[in-house]
Amino acid sequence: MAAPKKKTSKSKRNSRRATWKNKAAIQAQRALSLGKSVLTNQSNSFEYPSDDDEDDDE
To answer: What are the distances in angstroms from CA 38 to CA 24, 32, 35, 51, 52?
Structure first.
């Protein structure tokens, strides 16, 4: 028969939530930064086709 689990403390719960939220915030910041660099054509790590390439194929 399964034994009941012990209750997780509020501090441990809050710590886990803070870690999860910080990871999400870091990813959001990186995505925003990449988006800004792509819009200003200053990105070196992200390659995407431009409209000029489509005209060359024709």
So the answer is: 21, 10, 5, 14, 16
3-state secondary structure of 57: helix
Phi first, then psi: give them for residue 13, nearest 5 degrees: -60, -45
**CA 52 – CA 32 distance, rounded (Å):** 25
Alpha carbon distance 48, 54 (integer Å):
12
pLDDT digits 0-9 by tens, 23-53: 999 999 999 988 888 888 777 776 766 666 5
Using only C-alpha atoms, the chain has a radius of gyration, in whole angstroms, of 23
Q: Which two tokens stand for residue 32?
A: 């925003």
The CA–CA distances, whole Å, from 17 to 8, 21, 31, 56 equal 13, 6, 21, 51
